[in-house]
Amino acid sequence: MSRNVLKIEHMTMQFGGVVAVHDLSMEINEGEIVALIGPNGAGKTTAFNCVTSVYEPTNGRVSFMGKPIAQNSPNKKMRKIYAGTMPDAFTDKTVRMSPDQVTKLGIARTFQNIRLFGGMTVLENVMTAMHLRRKSNMFTATLHLNMKEEKAMRQKAMDLLETVGLKELQDEMATSLPYGKQRLLEIARALATEPKLLLLDEPAAGMNPQETDELSAFIKRIKDQFNLTVFVIEHHMNLIMEISDRIYVVDFGKLIAEGTPAEIQENPAVIAAYLGGEDE
Amino acid sequence: MFNTVFPYLLTGISVGGQYALIAIGYTMVYGILRLINFAHGDVFMVAGIVMVYLNASGLPLWLSVLLTLLITVVIGFAIERVAYKPLRTAPRMSIMISAIGVSYTLQNLVLYITGGLNQFYPKVSFISDSVTIFGASTKMVTLVTPILTVILVVALVQLINHTKIGMAMRAVSKDFETSQLMGIKINSVISTTFIIGSFLAAVGSMLYFTNYNTVIQTSGAMPGLKAFVAAVFGGIGSIPGAVVGAFIIGICENIIKGLDIILFKAGITKQNLGLATFSDAFTFALLIVILIVKPTGLFGEKTTDKV
Amino acid sequence: MKKFLAIVMVLCLMAPAFALADDMPVVKIGVFEPASGDSGAGGKQEMLGMQYANKVAPTVVIGDTEYAVELVYADNQSATDKAPSAASELVNQKVSVVLGSYGSGVSMAGSPIFADAGIPAIGVTCTNPQVTLGNTHYFRICFLDPFQGTVLANYAFKEMGAQVAYCLAELGNDYDVGLAYYFQQAFEALGGMVISETFPTGTSDFTSYINNATGYGAGVFFAPCSLAYSTLIVDQAAGLNVNFALMGGDTWDSNMVLEAAAGTNLKILVSTFYQEGGNAEFDNGFKAWLNEDAEAMTNNGGNDIIAAVSVMGYDAYFTALEALKAAGSTDSKAVNEALWNVTLDGVSGAIAFDAETGDAIRDTAYIKTVNTENGAWDFVAVQGVN
Amino acid sequence: MKTKKKFNPAMLWAALVIVLVYVAVFITEQLLPASSMLFTVLKKGATYALVAVSMNLLNGFTGLFSLGQAGFMLIGAYTYAIFTIPVADRMNVYQYYNGGLVQFAMPVVPALIMAGLAAALFAFLIGLPVLRLKSDYLAIATLGFAEIIRAIFQWNKLGALTNGSNILREFPTFNDFNIRNAEGEVTLYLSTLVPFLIAGVCIALIVMLINSTFGRSLRAIKDDEIAAEAMGINLFHHKQMSFCISSFFAGIGGAMLAMYQSTIQAKAFTSAMTYEILLIVVIGGIGSVTGSCISSFLFVACSEWWLRFLDQKQMIGNFEVPLLRNGFRLVVFSIIIMIVVLFFRQGIMGTKELPDLFKRKKKSQQEVKA
Fold it and tell me: Are residues C82 and C166 located together in one domain of the fold?
C-alpha cells in the first residue's frame, strides 16, 4: 500500500451545542481519489474546513504526510457542553495552523460557493495563487527586479489555464465567466499552489450533464498530470462512482459507511440515510 | 478620598447620561443599517442651534422645546431619505462616506448661518440652578440627566420589545433581506429608527447645552465621537450596551481629568504629571482594549463567517 | 440628471471672481484674522476696529497720489493648518501690508508665507514673543506675554494674596500655553505655587478642571484661553459655586464674558489693552457706527460695549497707513522698511517699534473686573511690571 | 503558447502625459509670479495626492478600512520637523524647553525617509493588535489610535522632543528648494516641482507595488479574505505589510505637509483631516491611483482657490449677489461633495487608471472604423 497522505483521527467539530462533525476518522493514501458523501448538512464542508484549518476542530487530530496539522481537545468551557467522544485522547498537545500554512504544506481546495477574486482577471486569479511559492521579497517585487520569476509565473499560469481550457478567456474578469467555467478556474487556481492533496468541494454543482461528464475525465487527468491525491465532496453520484477509489459516507456528522463504490452502493445504512434524507 | 473623587464621579455620570442619549442613536442605526452614522453628532449640534434661534425669535420656552424636538426629528428623517436611502444597494463604504459628507454639510451650513460665532444657549431656570449634594456643588441638570436618560431608555426598550414596530426593528437588525421578504416595510422601519435617534439626540442636546451654554458648529463632533465610542464599547447594536458604555466612558474620562489630584491627595505622586492631556486619548485606549479582548464590545453578539 | 448636475457643477467651479471697478488707484491691506473657529468672535471684533478705521479714513495719500484703501480679508479659521493657505490668498491678492492676527499660533503659521513674499505684517493682539523674534517682517502693536503674564502674576500674588494658582491652557494653542508659561514663571518667582493643566481642543465640560482647582486650594484660576472656552469656564464655575477668582488675559476682554458672568457671584479679572472711556471721540464714533450697522453689531456680540481688540485693530489700521505714507509707495518692501520708524499716537497709547524685534514699546496694561450686577467692566488698575 | 510582452501604446501615452505634466509645472513656475494661488494648490495637491494614494492602498487595494491616516501624517510631520530644524533656531522654537533634546539637524532627504520609517514603525506596533479586527471595528480602532498618537505628541512631559503642544517651525520648506543667487533673488524656481517629484517617486513606488505579485495578493485579500488565505496568502503578514507601507508614505506625506505649511502643530491632525483624505479617495474612485491624484488637486483647488470668491461680497454692476459671505464657500463645497457622493458613486475614475483612458479611446476608434 502506498503512503498515507491525509489521516483524520476522531475529529469532532462542535459549534456551541451543535455537533457538526462527530468522531470522524478516515485515511487517504497517495494517488487515491477519495470521496466524502452524505446528505445536505451532514458536515462534509465542515470536515473540509477543519482539514484546511478554517475551523479548529473541537477534538481529534488531522495529520498531513504524517505530520499533525491540527490537533485539539475540548477546553474547560467546551468540556461542559462537549457531546463528542474521547475528550481525553488528544490532550498531549494542541496544534493549530492558519489556512495559508496548510496550503503551503501542500493542501489546496476549491469552494462549494465559488470564491474567486472578483476584481481580477482569470489570469490574475491563477497568478495570485502562485504568490506563496515566490522567491522574491517585497522590495525586489516592488522594484520589479523579479521579472524572470514573474515571467515564469505568467507562463505557468497560462499553462494551467490551457490545461483547464480557459486560455482564451485569460483577460476576462473572473466573475464574468459562466458558472461551470468558474468552477474550472477555481481548480486551476488551486493547482497553482502546487498541492499534493487537492480538496474539491462539490466541483460539479451547477454544471450541466455534459460538463459533468467532462469533469470526471478532467479530474482523473489532472490527478495523473500533477501527481495529486484528490479528496472530493460531491452530490452527483454518477461522478463519484466513476472517479472514486474509495468512498466515505457521513450523516448527521457521523461516519456511517466506507468502502469502494460498489460496496457503498449496496450498503443498507447509506441507502437509508439517503432515502431518509429525501423525506426531509 | 471619597470627597476627592466624588465630584468627578458626579460629573462623569452627568456626562455619561448625555453621551448615552446620543449613543442610542448610533447604536440603533448601526444595528439596522450597519452604518456608522457620522452625521449623528451633528444632528445633535443642529438641535442646539435650532433651539437657540427659536428662543431668540421670542417664542415661549415650552414651545421652543417642542418645536426643537419636532424640527430635529424632521431633519433626522430628511437626512436618511436624502443621503442614505438612495445608497441602500451601494457598498457599505459609500453610505459611510455619505454620512461623513452630511456631517461636513451640516457643520458648514451652521458655520455659514451663525457666522462661526458661539451661540448662547437659552437658560432653563430650574435645571440651570445650582445644588449641593454630599458637599459637592453642581447644576441641577447634572442630576436630571442620568434620571431622564434611564427613563427614556426604559421606555425605548419597552417600545422595542412590546410593539409591532419594535418587533419589525428587531427582525430587520437580525436579517435585513429576509425581513424584507417577510413583508416588513424596511423604509418605514429605518425612518422610525432615525426619528427615535434624532429625538433622543435632541433631548440630549437640550441637557448638554443647558449645561455648557454655548453652541458652535463643531460642538457636536466630540460628544458625537465619544458617544459613538461608547456605543461600540457597549457592543454596537445593543441599547443597554450603549447606555452602560456611555456611563463608563463618561466616568472614566472625568476621573482621568482629575487623576493627578486624586493621586496627589492619595500620596501616590509628588507632582502633576499632566495626565489630563489624556482624557480623550484614554477613551480610545479603553475602546481599543475592549475591541481586542472582546471584538464585538461588552454586550455585542458574536458573528461567524460562513465559508 | 447626472449630466445636468455635472454641467451645473462645472459652471459653479468656473464662475469667475468679479473684480471691483473703481476710478481711484487702490492700495490693498490684508486682514489676516479668524472669522470662524474658536477665536472667530475675537477675530471679528478685531476686524470691527479695522472696518471702522477704514470708514473713518477710507483713503490715504501716498507720495502725491490719493489711494482708496481696500481691506482684503482672509479667514484663517483659528487653525494653524488653515492659516498658510489664507496667508497665500492674501499674497496672491498682492496686498501691501497685512494686519493680524488675533491669536499667536496662526500668526506664526502665516508668518513664513508673508516672509517669502516680502510682505510686512502688523500683529494686532498676538502676544507670544515668538511671533516677531528672529524675523524682520513681523511687527506688533500690543504688549507681550512675558509682560502680561508678569503683570497678572504680580496682581494675583500681591494684590489678591493668592498663594496657589491654577493655570489652564488649551493644548496646542500658542497663545494659551505661552501666557500660562510666563504667568507660572512670574508667580513661582514670587514664591507662589502653580498647578498647570491643559485641555484638548473642543472640550466643553470644564467642571472637572474647576474641581481640580478647588482640590488644590487655588486662590486664582488663570485660564488664558479663547473666548469660546472662557465663556464656558465662567458659566460652569458659577454653577459650582467656586471660591477662587477667575483670571484671564486679553482674550477675556469681551462683552461675551460679561454676558456669561452677569448675575453670578464670580470674581473675574482680566488684563487688557484699553479701557472704555480712554478716548471719548473714538468711543462715541465707534458706538455710533455699531448702532448704525446691523452686521457690525452682530459681530460685536449684539451690544455696543467696546472690546479692547477693536481698539487695537483700529490702531493697527492707522499704523499701516502711517507706514504707507512714510514709504511713499505701495510696494510691500518699501512699507516694510518704513515700518521700523513709524510712530503713532493711537487710541490705545503711543506706538513705536523696538528696533530689534519690531515689537511696540509698551509698559502698561489695564486690569479690569466684571461688575456682575450691571454687566459691565469696572476699571481696577493700570499695572506695570513693577 | 509563448507570452511575449506586447508593446502597449496606452502605457506610452500615459507616460507621455505624466512627463508633460511635469514639464508644464516646471515651465509655469518660471513664468508665473510665485505668489500665484496656483502654486499653493499644486503644492498642497501633490501632498494630498500622495496621502490619498497611500490611503487608497489600504482602503481600495487591500480592503482595510483604516481611518488612522492623520495620525501617521502627524508622526511623519513631527519626525521631519524635529530632525531638520536648524540647531541655531532650536532655542527659539523650543522656547519653553530650553532648546529641546535634539541638537543636530539632518538633510531633507534622509529626514523624509526617517519620517516614513517612524510612521511605519508606529504602524507596525499598532497593527499587531488592531489588524485582527474586521471592517468597521478596524476603522474605529485606527481612528482611536490616531487620537491617542495626537495626545501623546502633545504631552507636556515629552516637550523636549515634541515641543509639547506648541508649534514647530523654521524647518526647511518647499521654498527652500528655489535656487537663489548671491543677492537672495530666485534664479530658478523649484518649489513646486520638488513636491511633485517627491510625490511622484512615492506614488510610482506604490503603483509598482500594486502591480507586483504582492499587489495581487493584497487585491486578493480585498476580494475574498477566506479564499486568499486558502491560496496560501498569510492574511496578517500581508495586511501588516500594506498597513506599514501605507503609513510609510502617509508619513512622508505628513512631512510634505509640514514643508508646505512651514509650521506644524499636532492639534491640526484631527480625524477631520482623515475624513478629508477619505473624501478625496472616494471622489477619485476607490481603487484608482489616478483618480486619487486628480481628485486631490480638484479638492484642494476647490477648497482653497476656485470657490474663495464665494466668501466675499460680489457686485455685478450695482447688484449685490445674495448669500455671499464668509462660510458660503464651504457650504457650496460640501453640497458639491454630497452630489458627487450620491450621484457619481464610482468617483471620477472608478477603478480605471491613466493608461485605461487611452485604451478605451483606441477601442472606440476601432469601432468607428468598423
Answer: no
Neighboring chain C residues of B132 at a CB cutoff of 8 Å: 241
Q: Say yes or no for a CB contact (<8 Å) between C299 and B115.
A: yes
Q: Coil, strand or helix: which one is C380? A: strand
Per-residue pLDDT, averaged over A267-276, amounts to 79
Look up the CATH number of the domain holding residue C199: 3.40.50.2300
- Chains with ≥3 Cβ pairs under 8 A against B? A, C, D
Distance from CA of D331 to the nearest CA of B (A): 5
Task: Looking at the structure, tell me whether residues C314 and C182 fall in a common domain.
Answer: no
Residue C9 lies in a domain: no
- Residue C15's pLDDT is 46
Contacts of C202 (CB under 8 A, 6+ apart): B218, B221, B222
The most distant pair of C-alpha atoms in chain C lies apart, rounded to whole Å, by: 73
Percent of chain C exceeding pLDDT 90 equals 27
Tell me which residue range forms the domain holding B192.
2-293
D87-122: buried (b, 16+ CB within 10 Å) or exposed (e) per residue? eeebeebbbbbeebebeebbebeebbbbbbbbbbbb
In tens, the pLDDT along D259-315 reads 998 889 888 898 888 988 998 998 898 889 999 999 999 999 988 888 777 777 776
Asked if residue C15 is part of any domain, the answer here is: no
pLDDT, tens digit, for every residue of B234-244? 888 788 889 99
Average pLDDT over residues A126-141: 86
CB contacts, 8 Å: D89 with chain C: 134
- Is the pLDDT at B269 greater than 80? The verdict is no
Gyration radius of chain D's alpha carbons: 22
Question: Which alpha helices (DSSP H) does chain A contain, by range?
Answer: 44-51, 76-81, 99-105, 122-128, 138-142, 147-164, 179-192, 209-225, 237-243, 261-266, 268-279
- The SS3 of residue C213 is helix
Query: Measured between CB atoms, does B210 come within 8 Å of chain D?
Result: no
C-contacting chains (≥3 CB pairs under 8 Å)? B, D
The reply to whether B130 touches chain C by the CB within 8 Å rule is yes
Extract the C-alpha cell encoding C266.
Answer: 464670580
Q: Residue C6: inside a domain, yes or no?
A: no
Q: For position B22, which CATH number holds? A: 1.10.3470
Question: pTM for this structure?
Answer: 0.89
Domain for residue B303, yes or no?
no
Identity of the residue in D132, D148, D155 whose CB atom sits nearest the CB atom of B284: D148
Same domain, residue pair C265 and C205 = yes
Q: For this complex, say whether ipTM is above 0.90.
A: no
The reply to whether residue D37 touches residue C84, judged by beta carbons under 8 angstroms, is: no
CB C54 within 8 A of CB C12: no
Query: Cα–Cα distance between A76 and C324 in angstroms, integer?
Result: 85
Is C199 among the domain residues?
yes
For C172-176, C241-245, D77-81, which range has the lowest pLDDT when averaged over its residues? C172-176
For residue D164, which residues of chain C lie inside 8 Å, CB to CB? 177
Per mean pLDDT, which of B29-33, C70-74, D163-167 is the most reliable?
C70-74
Query: Considering only CB atoms, which chain B residues are within 8 Å of D139?
Result: 36
Whether B101 maps to a domain, the answer reads yes
Instruction: Name the domain count of chain C.
Output: 2
Task: Provide mean pLDDT across the span D11-17.
Answer: 88
Q: Which of D130, D134, D148 to mutate to test the interface with B (most CBs of B within 10 A)?
A: D148
Residue B53 touches chain D, beta carbons under 8 Å: no
Q: How many domains does chain B have?
A: 1
D76 pLDDT higher than 60: yes
The answer to whether C211 contacts B138, with C-beta atoms less than 8 Å apart, is: no
Q: What is the least distance, in Å, from the CA of C134 to any CA of chain B?
A: 31
Instruction: Reply yes or no on whether the pLDDT at A94 is more than 60.
Output: yes
| Nearest residue, CB atoms, C198 vs list B139, B223, B274 | B274
What 3-state DSSP class applies to D106? coil
- What proportion of chain D, given as a percentage, has pLDDT over 70? 94
Look at C5 and D263 and tell me if their CB atoms are within 8 Å: no
Same domain, C253 and C376: yes
CA distance A277 to A258: 18
